[in-house]
Amino acid sequence: MRRTVGVVLLVLLGLGVLPAVAPASAQEAPPEPAVPAVPADSGAGRRIVYSNGQQRIWLVEEDGTLANTHLVSGRRHFPRPGTYAVFSRSPVTRSGSVSMRYMVRWYQSPRLAVGFHSIPTTRHGRPIQSESQLGTFRSHGCVRQSLADAALVWDWAPLGTPVVVVP
Question: pTM for the complete prediction?
Answer without folding.
Answer: 0.80
